[in-house]
Amino acid sequence: MAVKVYHDSDADLSIIQNKRVTFVGFGNQGSAQAQNLRDSGVKNITIGNRDDEYKPKAEAANFNVKSISEAVKDAEVIFLLIPDEVQHEVWKEQIKDNAPQDAVLVVASGYAYAFDLLELPVSMSVVMAAPRMIGPGVRDRFVAKEPYPCFVSVEKDPNSNALPIVLSIARAIGATLGGAVESSCREEAGIDLFAEQALWPAINTCFREAFNTLKAAGFSDEAILHDMYLSKEPAEVFERAATVGFFRQLKFHSPTSQFGQLRGTKNNDGTALRAKFEKVLHEDILSGEFAKFWSGAFTSGSSDLEQLWKESEDEPISQAEKRIGLHD
Q1: CB atoms within 10 A of CB 269
Q2: Is 86 exposed, middle or buried (CB count within 10 Å of its CB: 0-12, 13-18, 19+)?
Q3: What phi, psi does 228 have (nearest 5°)?
């Protein structure tokens, strides 16, 4: 069955225009979406933010800024746009007992809802409007009237009115201009975490071991790194893949490159990699084990991330970048 794609004509902008809206967080997504809503005619917007570097930015942008617990008290629509790893604690300590029981919760990441990290009132609706774009891109494209991809979903609908609300929101942030794709928190979180924990680690490993192999063969740091990525050729490849197709972008390469890439891909059946991917997806991500670990690790102040950063700086490829002045 084809996935539903929603456009401007499917959304009634007046629905969100007439709601009392609170944004919890004024970071990259919060600032972009709040400004887009305001420019779309939403007049009653409050920013709930702690005393950090984002609070003065919200004030400078002429928004009404309050503490999180105060900001949510009379909200009809609450955007939860703070990092995944802190949503559970902020919700429990500052939002749960202060927000109206029948408010609509809007998430831009499916993580907390998909892995049951939020204790929600029975009468609270939950929807997702998840731009597949960094916050500044959401704002820039809205201003330029250019489309960008976005996922939307209704996760919890006790009042039978959540779909029109999320579509109104999607239109107000500019997401229905090019078409907002029907999805789910589970799908959004699963794919996102899979990319972060399986796909990109595999790519990172390929680049790391390619460097090590070429370095051992006596090639220079400068030649290896420029050929691998400093030339920005990989960015060009992905740009072409996004417009013409993943394999069809090879048509822009030389015949030698086309043959080498296609033969090399055919000769690697990916069985071991597929098995690893399946394990990460099902045993770590969809099982909820990673969410349980990450929430606990962050709450306890674990230094795992700092240690991983230190280890990455010691990698030969990182040291080579330093030698050629990339980290200056």
Answers
A1: 9
A2: middle
A3: -80, -45
In this structure, what are the phi and psi dihedrals at residue 154, rounded to the nearest 5 degrees?
Answer: -110, 120
Tens digits of residue pLDDT in 134-193? 999 999 999 999 999 999 999 999 999 999 999 999 999 999 999 999 999 999 999 999
Contact 32, 138 (CB under 8 A): yes
pLDDT at site 47:
98
What 8-state DSSP symbol labels residue 177?
Answer: S
Q: What is the per-residue pLDDT for 296?
A: 76
pLDDT for 289 equals: 94
- DSSP secondary structure string for all residues of 112-171: HHHTT-S---TT-EEEEEEESS-HHHHHHHHHTT----EEEEEEE-TTS-HHHHHHHHHH
Question: Do residues 33 and 49 lie in contact, with contact meaning Cβ atoms separated by under 8 Å?
Answer: no
Phi, psi of 93 (to 5 degrees): -90, -25
Owner of token pair 């006596």: 218
80-123 residue pLDDT tens: 999 998 999 999 999 999 999 999 999 999 999 999 999 999 99
